[in-house]
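Support request, please re-run this one:
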Amino acid sequence: MTRFAPALLLAAALLLPAGAATNSPALTLAQQLNNAFVEVAESVSASVVVIRVAQKPGTAELIDDDNPLWELLPPELRRQYEEERKKRRKEAEEDAKRPRKREFNGKGSGVIVRGDGYILTNFHVVEEAEEIQVRLRDGRRFTATLQGKDPQSDLAVLKINATNLPAARLGNSDAVRVGEFAVAIGAPFEFDYSVTFGHISAKGRSHVVPSSGLYSQGASMDQDFLQTDASINPGNSGGPLVNLQGEVIGINTLIRGLRTGIGFAVPVNLAKEVSETLIRDGKFPRSWLGIGIRGLRENDDEPEEKIDGADDGVLVTDIRADGPARNSDLKPRDVITAVDGRRVVTAAQLRNEVRRKRPGTPVTLDIIRQAKPLKIKVHPEDWPESKPAKDKNE
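Re-run finished. Output below.
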């Protein structure tokens, strides 16, 4: 079914003679599809929350120009943010001279993942929060605490003091197919519980947040996004992207300009892995090797690397002097083709495989060096709290 099929079916049904409409297969199909969207909106909205954030003094800027998301904003939205930031800075200077009144100036969405009060959202929604308030679909309001955060995946878990909440059903993002329907629910532009629909436009988008220059934070992020043309706008961040079965398949996170039909969501399988660990441990431990990496065939903007004996794989561009790989036999210009026997051809795949390993547990890398296949062991370590990105780091 094409993306215009629902509209065409509804239009065709409207043109049918009144007496024939009740027996029309087209109208019946259109009504069934219409009911499917209505049922998804009704069932999932109960698990969606609206999040309001009072940010710490001096950080009350929804997105600043050091944030990797800044470059993705359309010019008109950037201008609005610039004007708002100037206003807030002036207000901050005035507030410093008198007792400060807490202002809730950030907003986003979230999804209930456990009935005992755990809520999944984006990290950038609650970053630098001084206080977080959550409003449920039934109107109840709670002050939330930050259970844990994982900036690399842009995910965070909040906790509210409530029980018997309607937890969302989490699906399987690996089973998502390009072209299938997708429904986004959230609070864009202060319009709470807005529902939009579209399709899954692509899977595995890995060059969404810039990975070089001023915005090099993207080099250390998990970038394996679902792309959708369901309308997503500021305020949708942290809300669910769901299928027609009412299962969450992604957490809406980014847009590529307003009204472009290009939005991105963190796949729910990654979100489940991160959120379950944050709920259990309060943090998400990550392993890293301390190497600069680049997929041989994944960036058309860079000249294609010619490595003898390697048709694809992940090129090691440098070895960090403070990273775990410095004590291994790994060298720049090596091409990594597998991690513990699991094939990797992109930087994102390599990061994902290493992330799954416990820090300190050795991993075996299959590499190609000067046309010769080799196996090298490396002992990953805990990801440093503040590690500047350089190239595409792993």
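The chain has four domains: 5-45, 48-159, 170-281, 287-382. The chain has a mean pLDDT of 82.
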